[in-house]
Amino acid sequence: MKRTDVQQGTLALMVLKTLQVLGPLHGYGIARRIEQISGDLLSVNQGTLYPVLLRLEQEGAVASDWGTSENNRKARFYRLTPEGAQQLDTETQDWELTSQIMARFLNATAESS
Fold first, then answer.
1. Cα gap 34→46, rounded to integer Å
2. Which regions of the chain does DSSP assign to beta strands (E)?
3. Do residues 51 and 36 make contact, with C-beta atoms less than 8 angstroms apart?
4. Going by C-beta distance under 8 Å and a sequence separation of 6 or more, which residues neighbour residue 95?
5. Are strands 42-43 and 4-5 parallel, antiparallel or unpaired?
6. 3-state SS assignment for residue 48
7. Strands 74-80 and 25-26, bridge-based pairing
8. pLDDT tens across 27-77, in order?
9. d(CA 27, CA 42)
10. pTM
């Protein structure tokens, strides 16, 4: 199956969830984890990821510190903040509702009420 780019508006949620599950990670690690969880159906490029991380940091949803990566390179490690955890909860509920609504439309028939 062909890999596709992450849909607009979903990457921030995926980043927050990844940080919630795995704890602090550098950008490359976040991108690889999202691709892994998607079964390699999604492709996360750095030009898309880092602006999202910057925006999340400016909003207070993530914080970052410099550290050393697994291959001894200097890297910025991002972590979820309490505000980010709240944002994740809210956005998760919104996506679950949106998914339920879309499922109704996609499964609708002429007999549906």
1. 12
2. 4-5, 25-26, 42-43, 62-68, 74-80
3. no
4. 13
5. parallel
6. helix
7. antiparallel
8. 999 999 999 999 989 989 888 899 999 999 999 999 999 999 888 999 999
9. 16
10. 0.85
Asked if 75 and 68 touch (Cβ cutoff 8 Å), the reply is yes
Q: Which tokens sit at 57?
A: 């940091």
CA gap 107, 100 in Å, rounded = 11
DSSP classification of residue 7: P
Domains and CATH numbers, the chain: 4-106 (1.10.10.10)
CA trace torsion 100, 101, 105, 106 (10° rounding): -30
